[in-house]
Inverse folding.
């Protein structure tokens, strides 16, 4: 870790994006991002703008992504493999789909220096600790995290430096995690503009099952159902999709690999929340069948208040913003 010393790099033509602060000194010497897609490239962009690390290293399993990252100039070094990217690095952030995190951990294990921190951004946390933890040497610190910020887009062109500004990043340290390594990961996310919250991986997975995973499943399902009906209704599904349905199509266009892995790795929590969801939707169907307007009105009043609370807390724009990714100054 870098203890002190002023490092001022000139960033040709770029000013620090709103909500990000340029650091007087880097937090770490060498930061590696494995998988510079939407989330990884956003970390690299924000790290570049803030001067978070003296050297930014990245790699990707896909050679076309490595080439694109070079073209975009997102890192100081683009390594050919994960093992080479991780060698001699202070912090490695694994930004690949949840199902590939453990295999990356296995690939880098031998090349990590003692005291290095390995983190990730996976949308599911307990499986990362269970599967990646045993593959890493005892001399490194596994401190998983999850930035609760994203879009439906993927790849290095989709990222932007301000993605994490004023969003939560949930850090889920395993039992007996080294406090200074936990503090470093928290400081990293704060430097990227996020607000940090700590919880166990199990609690994270339960909370995110209802706030993120089941909503995505519902969106995938409703768009799938509508697409099946399209044969019956001809082009009406597309023609009249300017309203609520359109909001679902945004969510349902999210990356298939990422979401397949989320559901396969958070099975228990998702099934538990889905069970509860099914009970509640059955109650709504009953209210409609029996003309129970009061039950419908009461629920819709409660949910409207929840939406307004979220907006008041500044965590959502008032209207769906389909072009959020265009906030990027790097594109
Ligand atoms: N998209 C979101 O909204 C969002 C938000 C928060 C967290 N996450 C989590 O972040 C992670 C990345 O998501 P993303 O949306 O940035 O995905 P992405 O598809 O944009 O990028 C992932 C990158 O990882 C690379 N990759 C895949 N397997 C690899 C391997 N074995 N070794 C090296 N590179 C590999 C891919 O080629 C791709 O470039 C996922 O775990 C996801 O759950 C996503
Ligand atoms: O805004 C979106 O498009 C998202 O779906 C982002 C979202 C979410 O559900 O809030 C999706 C998955 C991540 O793990 C975190 C954030």
């Amino acid at each position: 870790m870098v203890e002190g010393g002023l490092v001022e790099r000139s960033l040709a033509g770029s000013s620090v994006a709103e909500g990000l602060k340029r650091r007087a000194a880097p937090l770490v010497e060498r930061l590696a991002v494995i998988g510079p897609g939407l989330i990884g490239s956003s970390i690299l962009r924000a790290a570049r703008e803030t001067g978070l690390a003296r050297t930014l290293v990245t790699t990707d399993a896909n050679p076309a992504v490595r080439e694109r990252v070079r073209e975009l100039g997102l890192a100081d070094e683009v390594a050919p493999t994960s093992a080479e990217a991780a060698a001699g690095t202070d912090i490695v952030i694994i930004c690949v789909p949840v199902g590939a995190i453990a295999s990356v951990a296995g690939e880098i294990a031998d090349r990590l220096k003692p005291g290095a921190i390995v983190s990730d951004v996976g949308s599911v946390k307990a499986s990362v600790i269970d599967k990646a933890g045993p593959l890493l040497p005892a001399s490194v610190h596994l401190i998983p995290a999850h930035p609760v910020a994203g879009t439906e887009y993927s790849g290095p062109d989709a990222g932007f430096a301000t993605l994490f500004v004023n969003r939560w990043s949930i850090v889920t340290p395993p039992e007996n995690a080294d406090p200074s390594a936990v503090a470093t990961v928290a400081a990293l996310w704060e430097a990227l503009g996020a607000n940090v919250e700590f919880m166990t991986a199990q609690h994270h997975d339960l909370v995110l099952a209802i706030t993120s995973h089941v909503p995505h499943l519902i969106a995938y399902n409703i768009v799938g159902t509508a697409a099946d009906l399209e044969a019956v209704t001809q082009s009406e599904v597309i023609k009249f999709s300017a309203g609520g349905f359109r909001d679902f199509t945004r969510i349902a266009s999210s990356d298939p690999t990422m979401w397949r892995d989320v559901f396969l790795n958070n099975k228990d929590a998702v099934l538990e929340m889905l069970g509860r969801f099914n009970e509640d939707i059955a109650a709504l169907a009953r209210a409609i069948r029996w003309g129970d307007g009061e039950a419908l009105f009461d629920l819709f009043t409660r949910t409207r208040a929840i939406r307004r609370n979220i907006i008041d807390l500044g965590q959502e724009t008032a209207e769906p913003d389909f072009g959020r990714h265009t906030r990027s100054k790097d594109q």
